[in-house]
Hints:
Elements: E1 13-14, E2 24-25, E3 30-31, E4 40-41, E5 46-47, E6 57-58, E7 66-70, E8 79-82, E9 87-88, E10 95-96, E11 101-102, E12 111-112, E13 119-120, E14 129-130, E15 135-150, H1 159-173, E16 180-188, E17 193-203, H2 209-218, H3 222-236, E18 248-250, E19 257-266, E20 271-274, E21 277-280, E22 285-286, E23 295-296, E24 301-302, E25 312-313, E26 318-319, E27 329-330, E28 335-336, E29 349-350, E30 354-355, E31 366-367, E32 372-374, H4 376-384, E33 397-399, E34 404-405, E35 417-418, E36 422-423, E37 433-434, E38 444-445, E39 456-457, E40 463-464, E41 468-470, E42 477-479, H5 482-507, H6 509-530, H7 541-565
Antiparallel strand pairs: 1-2, 3-4, 5-6, 7-8, 9-10, 11-12, 13-14, 15-17, 15-18, 15-19, 16-17, 20-21, 22-23, 24-25, 26-27, 28-29, 30-31, 32-33, 34-35, 35-38, 36-37, 39-40, 41-42
Helix pairs in contact: 1-3, 6-7
Keywords: Disulfide bond, Membrane, Transmembrane, Transmembrane helix
Organism: Phaeomonas parva
InterPro entries: Growth_fac_rcpt_cys_sf, TNFR/NGFR_Cys_rich_reg, Tyr-kin_ephrin_A/B_rcpt-like
Amino acid sequence: ASSTRCSACTAGSYQPNENATSCIPCPEGSYCPTGSTGPTACDPDTYAASTSNSACTACTTCSSGYREDSPCTATANRVCEQCPAGKYSSTTECIICPSGSFCPEGASQPIACAVSALVACPEGSSEPIIFNLGTYAVDAIQFNFTAVLEQVTSAEYNEDVALLVADSIAVALSVENSSVLVSRATANASASNYDLELRVTVPGNESSPEVEAVEDLLTVDAASTSSSATQTLRSEADTYGLDESIVAITMAGTDVEASNTSEIRVAQPGEFVDNGEVHLCSVGSFCAGSDQPQQLCNPGTYSDTEGAWECTLCGSNQYQGNRNASACENCPPYTFTASDGSFSEDNCKCLFGIENPSTDPNDAYCVCPAGTWQDDDELASAAAISSSDSLVYADVCVECSDGMICDQPGVTLDNLELEPDFYRSGIGSEIVTECVTPDLCEGGAGAGGDLCVEGNEGPYCEVCEAGRYKDSASGTCEKCSSANAAIATAGLVIGMVFILGLVFAFLYREKIFEFLERKLQAYSEANDAASPGSSTGTPSAAARMANASSLVSSLSRSGSTLSKTNTLGTPGSNTLGTPGTTASATDGATPGSTGATPGSTGATPGST
């Protein structure tokens, strides 16, 4: 018996079915290895442009100087094209050539232009542009015309006269003198005239207002132009040996021809030429004109406008450390520079003290040295004079007194710290004194109560805070206990009642005295009525009245004296108004004196 063997599909073909009698060609964009049951798509960046492919082909990579014209696909290879002039390529895309470089056709990278005022490479250059140094061309219209110089002989005419004629016409046409040129002069001996051929070049084109204005002056307004030119010519005629009364310029205005041209110009001061074009000098730069390039202002100078032909020195009390500056920096407050043109802040010198060693930009630049403090009032007075003389600031730094901590520079009355056992009443006070009681003033920053130990306040830290009392042995302020508080409260109430009584007696003393006098008078009269004619052992009514009057007068004097010296006052002062205080010894206030203290004469009920 015979048998049939199945054969594998050859490379480039495939067969997906059983019992097939043939294989199918592999389609475009795919490949089929031997024995394939189906086509396999080409991998990225590979292609198969025809059928029956056993493998895909790698796409072409564009080399430097070429760009991708069409991309790689599964069925087509990548197409590369050489970059045109003015562009370059290092990948798959042509890039425009940057300014300062040029790119010939097929360039793989830009080629740098030569560094020279004669060479320029604008963006997209295929080759360098070469210029004449310092010159540039502008579009212009050239007018050729004729004129007659009258009453000038061959003996009088020369090149200087030709220049005078050209300048006179330029004034009449309102153009630059250099724009007008006498190209030919022919003598007419019989008429003592010169026939002149001239030309004037005007920047612009046919439609430019300046060009149209000149054309009108040469044609329709030729007569007025001739008159204006003659007037200018005659004003200078004597200088050139011409008769000012007869010399004249006449233009017919009928033979004017215009043509396009270019005018070559030279950069003026404040200008520079770049790429064949003239530019105003930039801010921060200067331009000498002609063939000189634009240059940056040096440190210590600046230029704040366009078209500067030189840079300006920084003024006094200013500096500039960078090039290309449009302004100068002001020196820090209270500093000066020895001269103009300073190029560093180091040139700014302090008018007082020293430069602050601190690196914090928010700190003052000038401070008083260690061992001194800064008098801000003196500083303000010196600054108001607006002087750069350091002698004006001689009294700004003051030597520190005992108790001040001045071991670092920059001490002011606002940040002043004190040693322990020293005191000052407030911020801004320069008066520093020793405390009355040692150890009550702990020192440090601030003033007043800020300098006191805990529990103390007031002048020299001698006052106890509320809720404390002064220990008589140690002098320190101790916290009050509940018992102490109750005693203190009771004492305060009694004291207040006593004070109110004294106040009432003082305010109504006249009425009290009147009341006492009336009572004494009534008592005396009643006594006399009860003991008529008695004269032994008992004072008479007149004597008793005299004694009563004397008593009232004494009380009145005491009250008067009291009103002069004893006023309601503060704790601890020698005035009426506070429990436990002592009145003045000179005004009947000392214990034992009249009207002063319980137990003294005339002070308390039951006393003498």
